[in-house]
Amino acid sequence: MNENRTGMEDLLELLPAPFAGILSEPLAIAESFAEFAGRFADETGTVALLSGGGHDSARFHVLGLRPWLTFRERAGKVTGEFGDSAFEVEHDPFDFLQAISARYRRAESDDDLPLRSGLLGYLAYDLKDVLEVLPRTSRDDLLLPRLWMAATFRSSAGSTRPAPGSRRSVRN
Known about the structure:
alpha+beta, Anthranilate synthase, three-stranded antiparallel beta sheet
């Protein structure tokens, strides 16, 4: 990483422009989605979301690969990487997530894709500490981030599409 930046405005200026659209195609595979996604488990930043059950809300499996942006929050510091650059900002994690989500939010459309900003990741239970002070009843022995996100959509020459091998949605 060759550049460290501070300040939310500076960071947002460095990130790629918002995306024009998302390509989503059915993916025909001969194995289960879990087995297919497992092929990429060793790649840094891989995220697999598997819908479960036969309910009408269990329509998509999502696989995010080779993220162009990752960020995490721990103890009030948001750190991340994009391209050959790294950043660290002291910022409220919810405000940071809102700013990134707003920048990359897709316009409302007729499609029924479950992702609006292309971010895949998790918000940990311990983010509650940002909202209110509660007694700690457990040890933080794993030192995991309270928030971790990856963006796998990429921008190319004024148009936007997932990178080859990038996120695809699969309908159950």
